[in-house]
Amino acid sequence: MQPDDKVLIELYTTMLTIRRFEERLVREVSAGNIPGFVHSYIGQEAIAAGVCRHLRRRDRIVSHHRGHGHCIAKGADLKRMMAEIYGKKTGYCKGKGGSMHIADFSVGMLGADGIVGAGLPISTGAAFAAQLEGKGDIAAVFFGDGACNEGEFHEALNLAGIWKLPLLFVCENNQYGVNTPAAYAMAAGEISRIPKAHNIPARVIFGNDVEEVYRAAGAAVAGIRKGEGPFFLECRTYRWHKHFLSQQLEDLRPAGELEEWKRKCPVAAMEKKLRNRGVLSPAKLRAIDEKIMRQVDAAHDFALSSPYPQPQDALHDVYSS
Ligand SMILES: Cc1ncc(C[n+]2csc(CCOP(=O)(O)OP(=O)(O)O)c2C)c(N)n1
Ligand SMILES: [Mg+2]
Q1: Which of 35, 250, 265, 276 has the greatest number of CB atoms lying within 10 Å of its CB?
Q2: What's the pLDDT score for residue 1?
Q3: Is residue 318 scored above 80 in pLDDT?
Q4: 146 lines ligand 1 (CB under 6 A)
Q5: Per-residue model confidence as pLDDT tens digits over 115-173
Q6: Ligand (nearest to CA of 178)
Q7: CA torsion angle for 72, 139, 194, 73 (degrees, to 10)?
Q8: C-beta atoms surrounding 268 within 10 Å
Q9: CATH 1.10.443.10 fits 5-307, yes or no
Q10: Domain ranges of the chain
Q11: Which atom of ligand 1 is nearest to the CA of 182?
């Protein structure tokens, strides 16, 4: 399924929105303005954009600790996201969750998660719900290479496999869990061998090419919607920043590797294609960027001008009524 020009522009716009939002976070965290842990998605934008473009509003996704890109690609509001990251009362979790707990059920974003692998069993539940509801909805779950070494990863694959759940597994293999190389940590060697052992078809793709992600996710989603059961996409990619932005621990990834992957920037690659194919003129590209920058600025202003939650709010929303 080749994306037409309209879709290409949408994919590019989503990726650039993620990039500009994240760049703002990098700046604000470096300046000491944002508390807590912020895991940057810069470098991996094509995966969220390419997959979520095939999902409907009612389809549910579950994310991981590096989750801002998935929120944006699924249609979450930048202002409420930024406010949450700043711990403000107008944020998605009223300022009590922060970067790693942004959820927006109204767009089918069930949440990010600070516990590695924890989104996987939640996604099997979401896919099971979709199967029971019988309205043709599906679920998708995003997780890292490190999550594939967690017990719940195998439980989720097994359940999805035996119940033929309408679930798309999206592994964002950025080749490291903090500083641990995936190649060192995984006895199976190749991630994509594991789903096959659970009778789930798998494909390895280049996660920095949004067109490739779009095509692969399109084929996978079409099969899942037809009732063929789960599918597993392993997307090879690389994160540009340290594991989390304010991390003091040294980045131990080999020298030169980052520069090599920066040359494979998913956003710059797409911009070049759009220009060379005459889909967007330099002026139109600039206009898209300027509009996104205004949206990010507005989100940031909204967060800064919002109040913090009060101590008496601490126990609200902790238990369901
Ligand atoms: C169960 C659990 N173990 C360890 C951690 C600490 N931790 C947070 S992120 C992370 C690495 C995860 O790597 P990966 O799944 O590849 O995602 P990436 O950060 O590369 O996107 C670790 C070990 C945690 N949060 N939860
Ligand atoms: Mg990783």
Answers
A1: 265
A2: 76
A3: yes
A4: yes
A5: 999 999 999 999 999 999 999 999 999 999 999 999 999 999 999 999 999 999 999 99
A6: 1
A7: -10
A8: 13
A9: no
A10: 5-307
A11: 16
